[in-house]
Amino acid sequence: MKKLISLMAIIPTFLEVCILPLASTPEGINIKQIQEISAFKSNTAVEALAQPITVRLLGENIAGSGVIISQVGSDYFVLTCAHVIDSDREEKFVVLTSDGKEYTAQKDSRFNFRDRDIDLAVVKFSTNNQYPVAVVSDNFNLSLGEEVYVTGFPNYEQKSVNYIPTIDLGIKPYNFTKGKVIHVLNLPLEKGYKIGMSNEIEVGMSGGPVLNQDGELVGIIGRTKYGFGGLDAYRFSDGSQPSEELVEEFFVASWAIPIPKFNLVQ
Predict the structure, then answer these.
(1) pTM (2 decimals)?
(2) Does residue 170 sit in helix, strand or coil?
(3) How far is the CA of 89 from the CAs of 36, 69, 92, 93, 245, in angstroms?
(4) Read out DSSP for 128-170?
(5) Which of 1, 99, 178, 203 is the most buried (most CB within 10 A)?
(6) Residue 106 in contact with residue 124, Cβ under 8 Å?
(7) pLDDT digits (tens, 9 = 90+) for 152-173
(8) Distance from C-alpha of 172 to C-alpha of 166, rounded to nearest angstrom
(9) For residue range 23-57, what is the model confidence (pLDDT) as tens digits?
(10) 203, 156 in Cβ contact below 8 A?
């Protein structure tokens, strides 16, 4: 891995991230409604859109995923989960893009989502190379049964009965998963998690994009199924505790934070 170097001073641009409430939680999934959902794009088409915008974040103590959400000149902005990069004291990382290139990156401290108790962070890297930027969905309301796709880079891969670290494999561990929305919460879980999905997510994919059937960005994945911590791992953002029955439902879902809109203003 290339030696990390200091970044140039941050150019004064401002990223406005608006996280809006989702629609009311329906009582359950209507099977007929699921069957009527049409696939506007095939898995292959969505993956073709997803892979170029998905990046891997590596550092001395971190390994996770992210999505390119904006470009200003030679500066690219990557959205990821705060918990992915918080363990790196220097707040400097390597971003691996879809073409396998490595770029020095740094947390953009102007965007402090902790004030909103949301598990998000922005990372910036600079290059004259051109990369696509995620298209954010105009539809703020996800529906139960809606197909969604998640991409990212697992930290381990299974070989026979063993799990092998993938840190030295660059972008080779890229993973693309298909699933459906199974929970849409009015009151989010702690750290802003509102979207529960059936997608199989692995450790290391946190920070990766959640895309709809048109390949548009609708969220950021951050929690795998079967989270550690028991009941406390699924506490609502107001401090209240879901019932044990509800926790059992939450337990078998992967969770994401909805990201309805991005606007970069120079």
Answers:
(1) 0.82
(2) coil
(3) 49, 24, 8, 10, 39
(4) SS----PPBPS-----TT-EEEEEE--SEEEETTEEEE-GGGT
(5) 178
(6) yes
(7) 999 998 877 788 889 999 999 9
(8) 8
(9) 333 334 443 333 333 333 458 899 999 999 999 99
(10) yes
φ, ψ (nearest 5 deg) of residue 49: -80, -35
Helices (H) and strands (E) in the chain, counts: 4, 16
Query: How long is the chain?
Result: 266
> 141 is written with which tokens?
């309301």
Q: How confident is the model at residue 20 (pLDDT cuts 50, 70, 90)?
A: very low
Q: What is the pLDDT of residues 176-193, one digit of tens each?
A: 999 999 999 999 999 999
Q: How far apart are the first and last CA of the chain?
A: 33
Q: What angle do CA 195, 201, 202 make, to 5 degrees?
A: 140
CB 171 within 8 A of CB 100: yes
Report the amino acid identity of residue 68. Answer: I
Rounded to an integer, the average pLDDT of 104-121 is 87
Q: What are phi and psi of 161, to 5 degrees?
A: -100, 0
Query: Which residue's entry shows tokens 């974040």?
Result: 57
Phi, psi of 20, deg, nearest 5: -100, 155
> What sign results for the dihedral spanned by CA atoms 220, 224, 225, 229?
negative
CA atoms of 134 and 98, how far apart (whole Å): 13
3-state secondary structure of 97: coil
In the chain the domains, ranked by start, together with CATH numbers, are 24-49+135-260 (2.40.10.10)
How many whole angstroms separate alpha carbon 244 and alpha carbon 248? 6
The pLDDT of residue 30: 41
Give the contacts of 66 (CB within 8 A, at least 6 positions apart). 54, 55, 56, 57, 78, 79, 80, 84, 95, 123, 207, 208
For residue 244, what is the enclosing H or E element?
Answer: helix 244-251
3-class DSSP state of 33: helix
Residue type at 241? Q
